[in-house]
User: Fold this.
Amino acid sequence: MQVAAYNFGDYELDPARFELRHNGDPVKLERIPMELLILLVEKDGAVVSRQEIVDRLWGKDVFVDTEHGINTAIRKIRTVLKEDAEKPKFVQTVPGKGYRFVGAVSNGELAAIPEPVRPVEPIPAPPTSPSRLRGKLIAAVLVTLVVLAGLIVWYRQTDKHRSTKIRSIAVLPLANLSGDPAQDYFSDGITDELITMLARNTSLRVVSRTSVMQYKGVGRPLREIARALGADSILEGSVSRAGDPVHVTVQLIRAADDSHIWAESYDRDAKAVFSLPAEIAESVGGKLGAAGSAIRAQRYISPEAHDAYLHGRYFWFAENYDRALEYMKQAVQMQPDYAAAWAGLSDSYIVRAVAGMAPAQEVRAEVFSATKKALELDEASAEAHNAMAAYYLFLEWNWKMADAESQRAIQLNPQFAEAYHLRSYILFAMNQPEESTSAQQRSTELDPFARPWALGRNYMSRRHYDAAIKELQLRKDAQPKEVWTRFTLAHTYGLKGMSKESVQEIAEGFRLSQREKVAAEVEQVFRKGGARAVSQWFLDRDLAHGRRGYVSPVGLAVDYADLGRKEEALAMLEAGYRERSAQLIFLQYMPVLDFVHDDPRYRAIVEKLSMPPAY
Assistant:
């Protein structure tokens, strides 16, 4: 039997040996990229669709993050083949279709596989003398000792490997086995609370919620998921809820060898479910020798209040802030001593001011009251301290107190990505741009999926446009359906004068938001009048919205500034100051306003905000 190898350029691909060689030397390539390379070469120049790649590499019945997986595999192939994606020698991207192998391929020499050796009849040995017999016995003993020594070394290495201390964990989304998709909020909520408890009460590095949620319903091998998330261990399981009884199963897996460490099943009625995440976290910490401070006794939380809270968080993460606010209000009404619900209520109010959905003064009292109540009930809550930091930053413009509360939140939970993100804003307001970038980098490291646009926006705010574009393009490739990454990239392109690219990203952002008509309208406006016409379109749109409801004056100031209308821009900034707009904290880090920095009215606003002058 013979097996063919493929030659192209200085490379030789041997599918039988699953090996790629360059000038005769083996080249390291992981399994998925190697299988993809073999598939492309075997297709002999034909286009291979992305769906065909998924079917071949992962299987038809397995749901995976195909965009990320295929893009990563192609990138690794191109790296080992030392080629430029813009000028491919071997692997060509066919937009909207897939990929094809364009290198000249020839069959290499056929590697002969030797025929099996026929058994030979044994030849009788001559009689053994006593001295020869002793020699054979000694040799046998020596061989036995060598084998035993090898076994001891192997055992010690294996035992050392198994006893290596686990320092990190990823909690995969608990599967909803209730048979009712409407119960997803419950299984996701239990997952979220379990992550919070592990981060708060163990010494483990716990992978963030948004990072693990990328693997919800994905049938990848656990070792592969752990490697992607940088986790030493995996906690996976399921939740089944039918009326009042709740059944939860969890198992703890060592990622390095897929070995089973611990498993447990829990049956609880609705009244006892609230304390279950803390109980599981304590067991996991104990099993891994990573238990932190003893978990404090939990206040009794009614099932109804807990359910409302889980609904609120579910809608919060879905960015449906109106529904989140509705459920958080229900939770605190049902259970007035529910600290987490008060912190969630504060978040749900303040986001309305920060996002320009409501005037700051409209939510100021509610935010302070909810945050103060959360801290009174649980002074050790990182979430509550972070909410208070947001209150001082956005609604009080008190940089010193915001800084103190932010540092306290991070001290309580050093893995709290949201706290570092907020801290980056505080440091901007305090005119510490380098420290701001460091804080956002840490936030992005901890939770790259939560706000993929945030680090790029930070670079853009510092006028580092090329770095911002590079970062945002990377995030767009990793999460092509993330809307705000597109809009942030569009804004950065606009600041660089790259109007065509800016409008393309704006339109794609609207399409991803299911607003096809708006996207088409923006493209038509650009074709007829260019970038300035698009800027005017945004201003007209915001003014029309303002006639029907609330529009932030700072947002209007940006619209006017984008058109170079200095007087109107300054007037809107002054209106924003009178209104105490939450968005004014970004004042000095809005590049579109750079042309008004020398105006006395602008400098007066900076001075009244007690901001250290930046530009």
